[in-house]
Design goal:
The protein is α+β, with helices and mostly antiparallel strands. It has 2 domains: 36 residues; 100 residues, no CATH class. The protein is built from 3 helices and 5 strands. Strands 1-2-3-4-5 form a 5-stranded antiparallel β-sheet, with no helix packed on it. A hairpin with a 2-residue loop joins strand 3 and strand 4. It starts with 9 loop residues before the first helix and ends in a 5-residue tail after the last strand.
């Protein structure tokens, strides 16, 4: 057994304890700050569950800042493939960046609701917003321009 003893002046010991306490307080404050940031960020992200009616879908899109025409342009039932090849990689990545995981719904029938966006920031007309729903849960979505040289991006306002 090895025993080590050291003589430390009380002033240095008090300084060390105070420094350790300060470090703990800083770490705690940073952790609380990041939790508060996550709560604020989480509260701005719309809840994808319980989207049952047309008004619920419109409200979901408006929580991202989109204004849409009241009635959907199209409503389609789609089958998400059981096995997705590399042609789906970009689309799956886009959905993943928004927190949606379509691979959970492989082989399932979903509905896609397409709405006309009336307030796209560039003023472009004909922009559409799609929502993919499985039962009453939004499982994906995007905003796009159907033009030949159009764009496709997530639901967040650019």
């Amino acid at each position: 057994m090895l025993i080590v003893t050291a003589k430390v002046p009380k002033r240095k010991l008090a300084f060390g304890v105070a420094l350790a306490a300060l470090a703990c307080c800083c770490a705690l404050a940073l952790n609380l700050g990041s939790s508060a940031t996550q709560e604020v960020a989480g509260s701005t992200t719309p809840n994808p569950k319980g989207v049952k009616s047309n008004q619920d879908r419109i409200d979901y899109l408006s929580s991202y800042g989109w204004e849409v025409v009241e009635e959907p342009i199209a409503t389609q039932e789609l089958l998400i493939p059981k096995e997705m090849d590399e042609s789906y990689d970009e689309y799956l990545a886009l959905q993943g960046e928004q927190g949606f995981d379509l691979t959970k719904y492989a082989g399932k029938r979903v509905k896609r609701y397409t709405y006309e966006v009336t307030n796209y920031p560039t003023g472009e007309a004909g922009v559409q917003a799609n929502l993919l729903l499985y039962k009453n849960t939004v499982i994906g979505g995007e905003v796009l321009s159907p033009q030949l040289d159009g764009f496709l991006h997530g639901l967040a306002m650019p």
